[in-house]
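Next up, a chain.

===
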Amino acid sequence: MPTLNVSNFNIVSATFGGFIAIFGLVSCFLKDGCYLGEALISLLAGVILSPPAADFIRPLDYALGSEENLETITLYFSRLVLGVQLVIAGVQLPGMYLKHEWKSLAWLLGPGMTAMWLSTSLLVWGMVPNLSFLHSLAVGACVTPTDPVLSNHIVKGKFADENVPKDLQRIIIAESGANDGLGYPFLFLALYLIKYTGSGGEGQPGGARLAMAYWFGETWFYIIVLSVIYGTVVGFLAAKLLHWAQDRKLVDRESYQVYAIALGLFIVGTCGMIGTDDILACFIAGNAFNFDDRFRLSTKDDSLQQTTDMLLNYSVFAWFGAVCPWPSFGYSDVIPVYRLIFLGVLVLLFRRVPMVYAMSSRLGQIQGWQQILFTGYFGPIGVSAIFYLYVSLDFLRHDTIDGVVRGDAARLEEVLTVVVWFLVICSIVGHGLTLPLGKLGHKVLRMLSNPMKPGHDLEESHSPAPSPEREQGELGSHVDLESKE
């Protein structure tokens, strides 16, 4: 006898499929008409479907009731999304783009990221009570990288095609792709110093000298340099193998299109096994894979990569909406809610704009104050921040004394969870609503600047109707004009 089976799998499949189907019915209107991105809409869907609301998506049940398992799932999900999307981002840049634009990227990734890190850390230090500057450096490092997933909202689609020059689109993609993986040095400089010098180095002998040795040896050489080398070699060899197979007609069209996505999955897995930076390796591999521009040009009109990108966006931001610790924003010992809101506004305004303004003369892709404000403001915080958050939490939980997490490390865990999650939500909502509100404001100002004259409608309503002869004459003139054209 048939019975109703409301298992978690059936509920998730039905709700997720229904959400995508309903959104698809009005996607053109929302994206191109209202300039609303997938991230904001998916986040709201995740909130509506989460346990406090409709209770259709139950993340804690999927994690077997363990908060630690839930954090691990979110970390791996973020890695997967970043890896695949960064390979796609690298492939979408012209061949050898990183080599040709190395000067601009060096400014953005060196002094630029450092300025963003320090400015954000100062804001966190000033707004979060009883937080040391060293701890604020760890918080600032998590939100320093600009998110490549959210950046797609401003470098792709109707708005970008009409308002953002191609050179500016490309430098934003390249910066957001590269600086995601380069968040490790900023984060682990703070984490190693906290571990070996915090609380007087209690339980962790070695001091600042050992912290710097780990930072240079492990973070820079093993994580950063190795990932660049690995990504370059794997991406180049993958391209050569694919071209060899294609020239001999061994690969079909479907396998050819999905090759870059498969490359991203391979790099995420192999880099995870050896413990190096899979995010940076994926982006480098994507650009190396397209070294001769052959793959980008041959898949320019294909929609598989864009479709995969869209499905990943729907999934990850709906998941974020469901797992975000919403109650901690209003009921937390870390920071009062009014300070938290003020911090979010300050970070959106001052994390990046001053840096872009200071470097605009050295960045040929940025012309004029409008592009300075645009590039400076739209440096979103998203999936990469959640990734670094859970990397930090995993590191801090190993900072123990007699099997118990050290007091300063436990305090930093709370601060990181509340502040980083809130800044991510602020960025998704703030950057997601800026374009729609800007468009609405522009229409309102245009209406106010061209008010309808009094009696205009009355004059039109009482104006005499044109005679048939006049109508015929106007029509004939119009036809003659068209024939001349």
